[in-house]
Amino acid sequence: MKHIYYLDEGAVEVTEAGAHGAKMRWVIGEKDGAPHFYMRIISFEPGEERPDHSHPWEHENFIISGRGTLEVENLT
Which domain holds residue 48? Predict the structure, then answer.
C-alpha cells in the first residue's frame, strides 16, 4: 500500500490541446504497480478549464477546494 502526501509528487503542466493553467500530479499509476488504475490530482488556476475529452474507462472526479463544473454526456 502506498502512503504519501500528494504534494510530495511533482506537478507537471497539462499539455493537452486547449488546456491552460492546469497542473497534474500522478499519485497512483503504472510506476506504482497499478496498470489499470490512475489517481491524479489536477490543479487549475482561477478561471481556467480543460477542453472536452472522453475516456473508454471509468472516471472519478472530486473537487477538493474551490468551485467547478463537470459536464457529463451519454450517461446511461
Answer: 1-76
pTM: 0.71
38-44 CB contacts, 8 Å cutoff, 24+ apart: 41/6, 41/9, 42/14, 43/11, 44/68
**What is the chain written as a DSSP string?**
-----GGGSPPEE--STT--SEEEEEEESGGGT-TT--EEEEEE-TT--------SS-------SS-------S--
Structural domains in the chain (count): 1
Strands 39-44 and 22-28: antiparallel
Q: How confident is the model at residue 76 (pLDDT cuts 50, 70, 90)?
A: low
